[in-house]
Specification:
Low-confidence stretches: none
CATH class of the largest domain: Alpha Beta
Strand content: 35-45%
CATH topology of the largest domain: FAD/NAD(P)-binding domain
Bound molecules: flavin-adenine dinucleotide
Largest sheet: 8 strands, mixed
Structural class: alpha+beta
Number of helices: 6
Distance between the termini: 34 Å
CATH superfamily of the largest domain: FAD/NAD(P)-binding domain
Order of helices and strands: EHEEHHEEEEHEEEEEEEEEHHEEEE
Shape: globular
Length: 295
């Protein structure tokens, strides 16, 4: 029988920070992460001032500052073609050292947290291991069943199981936690375009009559997001990639010279934007945090 004090399901930001904190306090903690690594494209990059302050409190500020990053202090959006952009956020007015957003891919942050946690003898990270269900005894969650990518299955017993497995959390199937969804008017398309010398840097917005867009500077390429009304993905795809390129170009004219780099709809991922939360974040033996609790 495998045992741990705390089983953390999911090695995203919520799970890795929790595991680091517990391990530093000497609590035996095992993180199960279904993927082989943290390198996932479909992730954000903005590390906000409050998160930077938290990393500082954890003693990780110097290590974090050494990660390749861009620092963004203002967010500007165009209102009308040819008119000056409007500053919609100016973080430089914040007091304290963290008056900026650090643009760091989430996988770099997770690698840093995992590396730091591995220094603690009570920390274990099991990659390629997917929790497939909860173990319960007399109404109490007592751990999880799991399956590894090489097909092995097992059970891990724990005094406390923490669901940090994101918005598709196993815990959301539990009716007693009362998952609740709210209407959300938009979805997002997520795709890359090349970045060239002379381009702006950091986080850049764009607005046309068809799209609001955000471009995240990831060094050699732009990670682009285009907001579309919810439920219009299939219809817009059917209208053709050429049409999308034209509408996108209207919103972001300075990228017009490279929208051809988008060769197929396979390169445009749909992010189903959701707004939901659990009414109850815990039950005996189980706690839900991060996107598992509210997305
Ligand atoms: C496209 C996109 C862009 C975003 N941009 C930003 C941004 O710029 N700034 C920002 O602050 N936030 C951004 N977000 C939101 C942010 O990524 C999430 O809020 C954050 O990652 C939630 O952290 P989490 O640890 O709760 O869950 P997740 O990050 O979703 O992590 C869950 C982890 O659990 C693992 N997992 C899932 N199920 C299981 C299972 N059964 N067993 C084992 N492991 C499992 C997953 O592989 C994953 O590693 C973005 C999200 C998306 C999708």
């Amino acid at each position: 029988m495998e045992r741990t004090a705390c089983c953390v399901v999911g090695g995203g930001p919520a799970g890795m920070v929790l595991a680091l904190l517990l391990a530093r306090s000497g609590v035996e903690v095992t993180v199960l992460e279904k993927h082989a690594d943290f390198l996932r494209d479909f992730r954000g990059d903005t590390v906000h001032p409050s998160t930077l302050a938290l990393l500082d409190e954890l003693g990780l500020a110097e290590r974090f500052a050494r990660l390749p990053q861009r620092r963004v202090r203002t967010v500007r959006l165009p209102v009308d073609p040819g008119r000056p952009q409007v500053t919609v956020a100016d973080l430089s007015v914040l007091r304290g050292p963290y008056n900026y957003v650090a643009m760091v891919p989430q996988w770099d942050l997770l690698d840093l947290l995992a590396d730091e946690a591995r220094r603690e003898p009570s920390f274990r990270l099991r990659m390629n291991t997917e929790a497939t269900g909860f173990l319960t005894e007399a109404g109490r969650v007592t751990g999880v069943r799991y399956r590894t990518t090489d097909g092995r299955t097992g059970e891990l017993r724990a005094l406390l199981t923490v669901a940090c497995d994101g918005r598709g959390s196993l815990a959301r199937a539990r009716r007693e936690l009362g998952p609740r969804s709210f209407d959300c008017p938009m979805d997002a398309w997520w795709f890359r375009l090349p970045r060239r010398t002379g381009d702006p840097s950091g986080l850049v917005g764009g607005a046309g009559d068809r799209f609001l867009t955000a471009m995240i500077d990831r060094g050699e390429y732009w990670q682009c997001a285009a907001l579309i009304p919810k439920g219009t993905d299939a219809g817009r795809r059917a209208a053709g990639l050429g049409r999308f390129r034209a509408q996108f170009t209207a919103a972001v004219p300075w990228l017009a010279d490279r929208t051809d780099a988008l060769r197929s709809w396979d390169e445009v991922k749909l992010l189903d934007v959701r707004l939901d939360r659990l009414r109850r974040w815990h039950r005996p033996g189980l706690l839900c945090i991060g996107d598992a609790a509210h997305a």
